[in-house]
Model the fold of this input.
Amino acid sequence: MSKVKLFWDPRGFELDSLGSKRLLRITDGDTPYVSMSIRMLSIDTPEVHYPGNQNPSMHDERLAELAGWLQAGRAPAGPELSAYLYPRLVTGTAGTLQKEQGVQATAEFQRLLDLKLKKANGRKRRIFLRAADEYFDGYGRLLAYVAPYYSRDELAVMSERDRATFNLLMVESGWAASFPIYPSLPKYRDLLLLQSAAEDALENRRGAWSAPETLTGYEFRMCYKLWEVTDRLIKGKRLSSRERYGWVQRYCADMTTLEIHEPQDYHKVKPCNRIFVWPKDVNEAVGRLNLSPAG
Done:
């Protein structure tokens, strides 16, 4: 066997992995078709299952308990964030509301699919996917914008609004919150459309925004993690700083003021104006987006 001298994979270099997928069919000797889940970029809908396959309504009592801990200053959350979360958790139905809104969001997405993918002749359109710079999330899901597939002739007579992605349409309906995360941001003109649609849905109380006690999907997940952390502290567990504050990590930039806020201050930015940034990306984001510290 000949000795190969080509140097290719340095230590620590790993390719992205998609994990296990279901094989659907093959069309020839080198073309298998597999099932693949997609995480729609820049949006976040209420949870139908969290954590894992659990029903969010199972956590009503826990989240109400968290409300009491926040009010008593026993949770590792600042007073302003505690005051913001308290009325959304003390209802005793925060998990049930999350589940109900998740089901309604799913129904709205299905309605949009049925509407937008149906051609005039009754046949079904394919979908168009545009992936971000980061192709996959931590669960092996493809990160993408999803839209109906239009022919070149159709696109020639359509406006940008006519060819809206399902991501944008879900935000417009109020059943998805705007959730752009640096560096996987939409193009500038698309970001303007996203912000405008999110603001309009928020101000007109469409979809999930009709309920004042609404928690976005990312807030619901955050609050559940905060309950877990606080429960451990109250039981006398010793936690590292990372464990104590790991329930909220993303910084939040305001796309209208160019201020960047600490993770626990994300609520100071209107939901429609939020851009989230992971800690590892803060320095780069500050430089590339011309951000400045809030306050």
User: Anything to note?
Assistant: The chain is about 35% helix and 15% strand. Residues 40-246 form one domain. The radius of gyration is 22 Å. The longest strand covers residues 127-136.
